Amino acid sequence: MTEKVTDLLHLFDEQKFQEDLISWFKKEQRILPWRENKDPYRVWVSEIMLQQTRVDTVIPYFERFMRLFPSIEALAEAEESDVLKAWEGLGYYSRARNLQSAVREVAESYNGIVPNHPREISGLKGVGPYTAGAILSIAYDIPEPAVDGNVMRVLSRVVGIWEDIAKPSARKTFEEVTRRIISKDDPSSFNQGMMELGAIVCTPRSPSCLLCPVQEHCRAFAEGSQEELPIKSKKKAPRPVPIAVVALEDSTGKFLIRQRPETGLLASLWEFPNVELSEGGLKQEQIKKHLRDEYEIDSEVEKELASFNHIFSHLKWQLTVYKGSYQGELASKHFKMVDKNELQNFAFPVAHQKITQLILESEG
Ligand code: SF4
What we know:
15 helices, binds iron/sulfur cluster, alpha+beta, Endonuclease III, domain 1, single chain, Nucleoside Triphosphate Pyrophosphohydrolase, 45% helix
């Protein structure tokens, strides 16, 4: 253990902290579908879904996903398009794609059993240190740290860690502290207790210190610095990207959609024709030119249907949506003409789901 961590934990009563945290967790934990049992596959799926997504949002997705793909074998054998469809609306679709390829590796290389060794599990696609620690501790009772933003917040306050949690180097400190204080008898309840405490008591703003089960251990509470911790430097604002999109209808009432490339942002999802706008020039003219260059069709871009923003962690799409029409034959195979009632059978990113909705509403 480094000197820094020894200093941080000087006079910290690990044993009593574990007891207080675990007994509170056992009494107060929320009933959540992935806590019904300790099946490592269920723990894995839930942890992937919960990255960047709120518990309330995840619950119905998790339940449906488990009905559709109840086991490693079922998910390994599923069509990728069905998996993406089940994930539609959760965002960060690479999570779903990585999950399926990792599950296929488990099916092929580990006899369908999620590995319980840190090195093996960390080698699976999309399984970072947090997810590995969560599966190993929750499903297999192995005392591995599972340190995410919530846990860093709780630990920074309880132990008094004034490191910038936005810096990757801070994670090492938090993992080392956890390795030292985690319960070796019940690492599953310990890690889940830390997560639960961060979710419902030690919240980012206005933590409920007066109801907190570990208040007597908490250094931030003792010195009144709970609102100042954790230290987190600001991320850069997402880069704005102006985009024109067109809901293009042919004379038979079908809409043109295309599948995004197999790699990169929102890989393999479907979308309406769109173009990133350059400065100057009419938006309608730019999208008409794009339709000519990309799809070899002459179109009419008519009224504006809506404009809205969609924010990713690093990008902000500023979308202007048009209704358009065209006559003639399509010359490429990389897209489909789809009846408006069939649009919902395709996996679209959230921004394009909104456009589907606009079409259904405007068409009656
Ligand atoms: S006492 Fe307050 S700041 Fe400390 S762990 Fe509890 S809720 Fe968080």
